[in-house]
Amino acid sequence: MASRSSSSARDLSWLVAIDGAAVLGSFALACMTPFAALAAASALTLSRRAGIMAVLGAWLLNQIIGFGFLGYPTDPMTILRGVAIAVSTLAGFGVANAVRGSTGTLSLARMVAAIAGAFVAYEVVTYLTAMVLGGTENFTPAIVWMLARNDAMWFTGLMALYLALTAGAPSVFGRRPQLRLA
């Protein structure tokens, strides 16, 4: 069994990789950053504490990029929406973490359930926020489907990256997990 410090170092390596992906996503996609994908990937691959740090780090980096470089308005409504994104992302993480369970086994079924659950939780909390702050018109089937595809593609890419990094650099990212269908 790995020591706590080596496990923490591996978590930190993958946390940095996830947050690096968030930075790329923030610059490339601005308001379409795949927070549900980041939440699901973090929940499945990191300890609970490191996963929460990863998603909050991704959110914070996104906000810094948005407000500091992409010119997001600094009015109270935009700031509240930013906070709502953090809450939505944590909700998605919580659902995906529950799907992970305690086995630590990575299965295709669990991965599909984690991204689907994280996406639904993220969208529900975001929609509830929009009911208060405005913006429910942005929840058309076409827009939600576009976001779902975006998150699914990012999640697939993140999980492929995780498997490649654990296979190629196990001393840095940990041993590659067993992958099962169910």
Give a written overview of the molecule.
By secondary structure, this protein is mainly α. It has one domain (4-172). The protein is built from seven helices and two strands; from the N terminus they run ααααβαααβ. It has a two-stranded parallel ribbon with strand order 1-2. The two termini are 25 Å apart. The mean pLDDT is 88.
Molecular shape: globular
Name the assembly state.
Answer: single chain
Helices and strands, in N-to-C order? HHHHEHHHE
The percentage of residues in β strands lies in under 5%
**How can the largest sheet be summarized?**
2 strands, parallel
Domains, number: 1
The side-by-side strand order for the widest beta sheet comes to 1-2
Number of strands: 2
Distance between the termini: 25 Å
Helix content: over 70%
C-alpha Rg (nearest Å): 16 Å
Unreliable stretches, pLDDT < 50, 5 or more residues? Answer: none
Keywords for this entry:
mainly alpha, two-stranded parallel sheet, single chain
Offer a concise description of the structure.
It comes from Sphingomonas molluscorum. The protein has 182 residues and is mostly helical.
Layout of strands and helices, then pairs:
Blueprint: H1 4-29, H2 35-45, H3 48-68, H4 76-100, E1 106-107, H5 108-133, H6 141-168, H7 170-173, E2 179-180
Parallel strand pairs: 1-2
Helix pairs in contact: 1-2, 1-3, 2-3, 2-4, 2-5, 2-6, 3-4, 4-5, 5-6
